[in-house]
Design a protein that fits this description.
single chain; 376 residues; alpha/beta; Rossmann fold; Zinc Finger, Delta Prime, domain 3; 7% strand; binds zinc ion
């Protein structure tokens, strides 16, 4: 993974390169970045740069034997830990049981989300976990001598999916690391043991800039400037989502239609229509539900801006609905709604029961609307 193949993050890349060249390599690091920010790709680019024997001031060479093997995820001193769906029947109890699948999924898209990974291994409805069996494997791999005499490295993706006993065992390794080891934890949320957080050096990976996403879409997908800018604006810094939009896997029209139906039933609280809406939305699958909730959050934010007379980028086809809808949203109830919807997004990601969740969110949204109810 070369730095140049990762969208944006110019300043961060420079600071990583500088720290490696100055020998400031903290043995336990945390790359914290939202879905689609490229944090996982950056972690691998970090390790490749550390190992490359012909590195330049700006990147790994991409040609030496270290670079070749890392790029194929075949380097003996570069290990990965990631959540899996535990299965006795399939003999899956730790990451290495699914390494071939992991390599295939990551090489296909280094911006993959946890949902993509679970779909890839056919575990859409199972709980992604880094279980205690993993900690033995971590200890074993990291206590061996480095095969190439340099660092032993391990990228732990989604450490927030570790159960408590795994986390405690990892903590012990982080406290007393074997010589020449490097752990990079790549997380989307800092919701994990604070003791682990306190043992790692934090690197925040920000969301990608619109202009960088647009540039990448033009270059890799041959989009026009106009189309690329529209997607870059809509994806809110999530490059994975941007790519899905290009492939037509996210249907903005479908989301807007569903959003309008939802807001109408929440405003008027028609029980029958609400239960129809909830039942239907519960069947669209976890990834589409997440996309829909992200769309809803974005649209509520736009309504807050409209109410404050700030310019918001509204699709002309939705202008009419948004003008009628925005008076129902003000700064205060809008902020509460966004909090609720954010919680719902993460609950869906953690496999919450969609029907129960959507019903409960709908009722909360209803109570947050002003008392004078009208059909938007
Ligand atoms: Zn190289």
């Amino acid at each position: 993974m070369l730095f140049k193949d990762i969208i944006g993050h110019g300043a961060l890349k420079q600071s990583i390169i500088k720290s490696i060249n100055e020998g400031r390599i903290s043995h336990a690091q945390m790359f914290l970045g939202a879905e689609g920010s490229g944090a996982l790709a950056l972690a691998l680019a970090y390790i490749q740069y550390l190992f490359c024997v012909n590195k330049t001031e700006t990147d790994s060479c991409g040609n030496c034997s270290q670079c070749h093997r890392i790029a194929k995820l075949m380097h003996p001193d570069v290990h990965f830990v990631y959540p899996v769906a535990l299965s006795k029947e399939k003999g899956v109890e730790k990451s290495s049981d699914l390494f071939r699948e992991w390599a295939e999924a990551f090489l296909d898209d280094p911006y993959l989300s946890l949902g993509d990974w679970m779909d890839f291994i056919g575990a859409e409805n199972k709980q992604p976990t880094i279980a205690v069996e993993e900690s033995k494997d971590i200890l074993h791999k990291m206590s061996l001598m480095a095969m190439e005499g340099s660092y032993k490295t391990m990228i732990i993706w989604m450490p927030e999916k570790m159960n408590l006993s795994t986390a405690n065992k990892l903590l012990k390794v982080l406290e007393e690391p074997p010589d020449k080891t490097l752990f990079i934890l790549v997380s989307e949320s800092a919701q994990m043991l604070t003791t682990i957080l306190s043992r790692t050096q934090l690197t925040k990976v920000l969301r990608c800039e619109e202009i960088e996403i647009a540039g990448a879409l033009i270059k890799t997908h041959g989009l026009s400037q106009e189309a690329a800018s529209a997607i870059a604006k809509a994806c809110e810094g999530n490059y994975r989502l941007a790519q899905m939009m290009v492939k037509g896997e996210v249907d903005a029209e479908f989301n807007m239609q569903r959003f309008q139906q939802w807001m109408r039933v929440c405003l008027n609280m028609d029980g029958l229509k609400l239960s129809e809406w909830v039942n239907e939305t519960a069947t669209i699958g976890r990834e589409k539900q997440k996309q829909f909730l992200a769309f809803t959050i974005k649209t509520i934010r736009q309504s807050i801006l409209l109410g404050l007379n700030y310019p918001a980028a509204i699709n002309p086809a939705d202008q009419d609905f948004m003008t009628k809808f925005s008076p129902f949203i003000n700064y205060e109830n809008g902020a509460f709604m966004v909090d609720e919807l954010n919680d719902a997004y993460y609950a869906i990601e953690r496999n919450a029961n969609a029907k129960i969740l959507l019903m409960s969110v709908s009722i909360k949204l209803h109570t947050l609307f002003p008392q004078r109810r009208k059909t938007a």
